[in-house]
Amino acid sequence: MNLNGWIQIALYCAVVLALVKPLGSYMTRVFTGERTLLSPVLGPVERGLYRVSGIDARQEQHWLAYTGAVILFHVLGFAVLYAILRLQAVLPLNPADQTAVAPDLAFNTSTSFITNTNWQSYGGETTLSYLSQMLGLTHQNFLSAATGIAVAVALIRGFARASSGTIGSFWVDVTRATLYVLLPICVPYTLFLVWQGMPQTLGAYVHATTLEGAHQTLALGPVASQVAIKMLGTNGGGFFNANAAHPFENPTALSNFVQMVSIFVIGAALTNVFGRMVGDERQGWAILGAMGILFLAGVLVTYWAEAHGSSVLNSFGLTGGNMEGKETRFGIAASALFAVITTAASCGAVNAMHDSFTALGGLIPLLNMQLGEIIIGGVGAGLYGMLIFVIVAIFVAGLMVGRTPEYLGKKIEAKEVKMAMLGILCLPLMMLGFTALATVVPAGLAGPANAGPHGFSEILYAYTSAAANNGSAFGGLTANTLFYNSTLAIGMLVGRFFVKIPVLAIAGSLAAKKTVPASAGTFPTHGGLFVGLLVGVILIIGGLTFFPSLALGPVVEHLAGAAGQTFATGG
Amino acid sequence: MSRQTSSLFSAALIGPALIGSVRKLDPRAMIRNPVMFVVEVVAALTTVLFARDLVTGGNDLAFSGQIILWLWFTLIFANFAEALAEGRGKAQADSLRRTRTEMTAKRLKGAGRAYETVPGTALKVGDVVLVEAGDLIPSDGEVIEGVASVNEAAITGESAPVIRESGGDRSAVTGGTQVLSDEIKVRITAAAGSTFVDRMIALVEGASRQKTPNEIALNILLAGLTIVFVFAVASIPSFASYAGGSIPVIVLVALFVTLIPTTIGALLSAIGIAGMDRLVRFNVLAMSGRAVEAAGDVDTLLLDKTGTITLGNRQATEFRPVSGVSAQELADAAQLASLADETPEGRSIVVLAKEKYGIRARDMAGLNATFVPFTAQSRMSGVDLESASIRKGAVDAVIASLSGQPVASRGSNAALAFQPAPETGAVKEIRAIAEEIAKAGGTPLAVAQDGRLLGVVYLKDIVKGGIRERFAELRQMGIRTVMITGDNPMTAAAIAAEAGVDDFLAQATPEDKLALIRKEQADGKLVAMCGDGTNDAPALAQADVGVAMNTGTVAAREAGNMVDLDSDPTKLIEIVGIGKQLLMTRGALTTFSIANDVAKYFAIIPAMFLGLYPQLQALNIMGLASPQSAILSAIIFNALIIVALIPLALRGVTYRAVGAAALLRRNLLIYGLGGVLVPFVGIKAIDLAVSALHLV
Question: Which residues are ATP-binding (chain B) (predicted)?
Fold first, then answer.
């Protein structure tokens, strides 16, 4: 841990915080249908799109209709993507002559990209054609992110509205999220990445002869355009197998920094959109505050753990920090920070091998995902996931002020609690359930590369990453098998929809309620007390669910490692 | 019904409660409580496994046996809390039931006094019965003829008799109460089994208790958490097998039961019953638990001015003579005019004259005086003496009488009193004083002697002592108070300012009240009010918490969702407090219960996995003696904490009227942080005892 590292972390937080208000203000205008700076240019495009698709932009939807639209949108997206992957061999833009993607891998990959997970059981440069990357994956990178934002905005409307039967129009929300938020940022962002040295070409792979005379194939492609949305939309699916550790996917320290900022920026700004739309910005800051505390705690632990290395490595004379699996151009601080950011948000891009982190350094990314990716989280998904915890926290402790629980003037009643619990339940079911399965069946046991607790962590990490829609891989796990492809895909689907649908149900129920005006007797939800309560509830409910699994994975590995004990492969 | 507050753990209650807690193990009853039902299921399963192991011979039978024993104790403790809460109500119900038994009724056969004697249970709605002095009123009804004094001690505990009469707002009578004097004819309004006393018995016994909306929501949360911990525990065997070992079922069960929110699950229904019980002890009957919860949520209180904010009567506070008349002279005349006036206002004039001017009471007979009573037509009262005639009354009426308009009066010297003597200067002066008094919220009472205006008596509404502070408390709790009065806006404003209410509704008609409630509700607020008259019924029904006075009409009592047996409208404030206390107790114990899990994990997880990974001993931060004693200690703590919290559940957490922020800070500190820390201490202490006693 050194000053340089701390400055990087502090600078990062400062830049993200500085962007919250301006972007929040802009996005609020976008989603409340007000005029924005870009309206003169994009307005005609937007209206044209509605006219072509026969959408009446003023026609708002009941939550069930909204949910129906979300599901329909995903089903169609899945069908298109699956078809592209299966047919890529006969489709154009395939200079590397990639063959058709296998059915189970295509199923896994399609699921992965429509759910904003971007779990990759494949290596991009060895599996996919440029068309698959661009038309298939990049396209879904935009839409899955826009869907997440749309659902979050619908939930915000639930809180902001009173006695309303509708929560907005999904078609309008998803169009505006793409057109006014994602695209305008991605275009200059892509150009910036190109400037930093990222390839953006439809040309074929380059064959090079190295100084030693060895022959090497340099994979290229339309990288920059995909990376921009991969980060901004917290998708995380790498163009190359090595993801953001690959020099073409993350060339410089500056590109690394900007990529980290772009992972958090929309999620953080959405808390401000929330505050503005419910009429009290402080509410948004309180939520961001709770996220910030959990984030900084995670950064602290991971940075500390990585900077201190492990006693096992030390015994081999490798003193100092743990540089295994890290890129020297980023170093320990930026790698640790990246790991926490990418798992706190539902991004899943990696610039270092999480598998090679120390036990505790790897525990934090795992825990971040297990909590449900609510620390900033995936675009949209982070906010609505956090609001589910808010509902639970308010319900548990809100009674203690002597009123039935209320949040922002909305009474939290049986329906909201039921839906919130459903949203919370599906994650441990997928994460722990599938891990329990994989640790006993031979097909599952064949996966991990390591024995002992670390192997256990590899399996746990995979299902956690899938269900949380993160998509980052611990590494070490051979996941491109029928067993893992299909179980992980199920985890991704359940983790996405069994949170989204309850969230929309909550939105509908809240929108229909009256708003009780705040008084001195109302539970205050904008101060430090509430932030502390929220963090406590998240750690107790979220954390305790996974305590046994963490104890058997990273915790025991850490304790054993401290005692100098290792676990032999195959043992 | 006994008014004494029985102690929480009196021997008379504990015995039946213990029996009840075993009887409540019936799964059909347990299923109402999902968390405890799950505990029962796992307890039963492990008992069966244990029995099998006993036969086939297994390891660690003493350890398993003890865990299972404590599982059953957990259940019995939970049931005990509920049985104890119910038992406290049952004691009250029994005394109610005694008053009801063996009642007979004199059912009238026609319009006359002819009647037949039938058992009280045979009465139907619409029957008319005769109730004579000494008779018990056989069922709920409405007085249709006569007036009687009634002893309602059976339901209110108040032995002073009350008057019940036909017509007006005091016509409702309650079955089981006793007529002391006179006789009344009562039309029965409640069928057997659904009378007030029946409902009261059902309520205090908890028999008709339905889960309230908040309880339902809380149960969903608890069930959800239970399922989360099912996942957390059910996945452990696989994880253990991966690590090359296995975990005994009994240990998994112990972890599971300690993690799920048994504390709040066990006490939830006791908290609800106890909340209801607190209201009953406070002489308020809530018709549903929902109403009690709503009381905690109230945003706006509508309070009748008279009786709630002010003492019922206006009192004389000052004599204001016109120029040329001394205050002493005015006081003397006013006192004379009031000597025979038995109204509270009249008496207050006599008292004021004595206190301020030392004017002693005089003997009316000695003065040869004739009292002229108040009539609605004259709007004046007074006295006719041999030498003089004095009148006091509404300013307009007295002035009108001076101008010689015909006014009914009985005095022999009436002609003397009403000489047309227009003293325009004095009239103007009187009017000015009167307006000034009215502006200040008082009522002016003009006094004239022999056709000459003397001045004005300042009658003032006396705001109840301490009521201002109560309203300030309510404001801190975020509750807005609105005073309802028939007074004109000027008077109302003055009293409202003095009492410190937030708003007022002057010259209020029942329609105005209803409109105000609807308006508040449209803004999302919950409204509480109390009322007694038939014309209050629509507003009582509309209000979220409508407290009907027991002295009120049947219509009012039917419309409200609470009945105040003492008919004290001030109680609305306490009812809100009780509602809040109920919700707070629920929240505090839920928070405590969930916060407890942290320590339990640190007790059981290292113990559980020690066989797989000895390194996990590092997590045994409490330094518990052995894995088995750690697990046993956690499960014992889990059971005992229920017993330890029963008093809190029944009494309710301390409630102070402070703002929500301060309340939350305090309760989070006690029940949140306390909930994290207490089990660390408790489990460690139990572990020391367990290892000292060599239980494992």
Answer: 341, 345, 374-381, 392
